[in-house]
Amino acid sequence: MEENQHLVHHDAAIKTPNPSTSPTSIVFNAQPFGGGPGATLTAVMPYLRSRLKSLGPIALHYVGSSLTMDLQKLTEAKWDGIHNVDLYTNPDMGKKKLVSLLQHLKPRLVVTAMDELVAAAAQMAGIPVVIIDLLLWFWPSISPHWRQAELVIAAEFYGVQERITSEKLTNVVTVSPLGPPARTTRDPSSGVLLNFGGMINPLMPNEEYIAYSRLIYNTARRAIYLRNAALPESQRAKLTVLVASLDVAQGIDPEDPDAARMVLPDEALKLMALSELTFCTAGLGNLYAAGAVANQVLLLPPLHEGHAIQTHLIQKAGVPVDAIEWHELTGRAPIDYYRDSLEVMGNVSKAQSEVIGSPKAQAALVNRMLAAMLRSASTGALAQDPPLRMLINEFGQDDGDAMAAQIMDVLARV
């Protein structure tokens, strides 16, 4: 792990408040784009709680909206306060609510996982800000609010170090990406896991990602039916479906409210490790989890440019990964994922609609998933490390404590 050598940890030097005063408040937030930001805070919080014991009375407050609220309520994070503040549906009203909350809580620090709107409001109020950035390599330009932050904690990935150098970012430290320890045993595996992860994006209408989940879910059900019909009864498999959003869980199959479920991250990892095959979206959280514990993996068609570019970068780095692209199904030219975000999502929406309306395209998707199922059924648990393990070998993995240590370093000086 590389970091600015001038930024060191001083847990013991943190100023301790007078015990008779009210608890010191720290506000945490995650942008509601996918599951990674919210899951990151869930991973960091227990380690930070442990380190904060030297600080005296403290109150940790979570501020967020959409699927990030679903995740914080699902996990047993035990925040001292959870506040639903939506800065995207109605930005003006959301900003007023956030400013009012900050004035009430008077936090010593605001920690946000990549939400520029929250960082801006806190900085305008004179509150020190720490930004956890899982995608420093990705942004078309670096926000001035990143440059004004007390610290940016960047998760390593291809292009991160180059971005720090080219942008002359002096307030950035890098840490290994969050993820579970890489397993060292190969347990018996069976079944197929369909893990949608965090798909929700405030720029995307609800009906878009629900339509996506229904398309993939119905296709996977058809493929596993064909798989089981082609194999002996002793090799028949069950399809397990995981989501990170209550909206998707409730909308994926109107006739079966139990078709998909939300589970704690640890349970999702156990299911991934026990499945002979995992279908998942190409979010970084899924990629690192798959690299640590999965057997065979097939990446689903990208919902946005982030999924696609991450896949392209790991393939460019020589990581062999099986991934479905929309043009394989539609027969049209590949989508250019390096264009404007809204343009890319519009093109993805068109491709998705075309597949939904085309029995031929759906058959191609069924065949792609069925081929992966039959291949995994014939090989079972891999005798060698999964291809995505190369990501962990390259960048390592953090359980959340490295990020917690960096936050403590900031608390020592603000």
UniProtKB/TrEMBL annotation:
Stretches with biased composition (Basic and acidic residues): 1-13
UniProt-annotated stretches for the region Disordered: 1-21
Organism the protein comes from: Hypocrea atroviridis (strain ATCC 20476 / IMI 206040)
Protein name (record): Glycosyltransferase family 1 protein
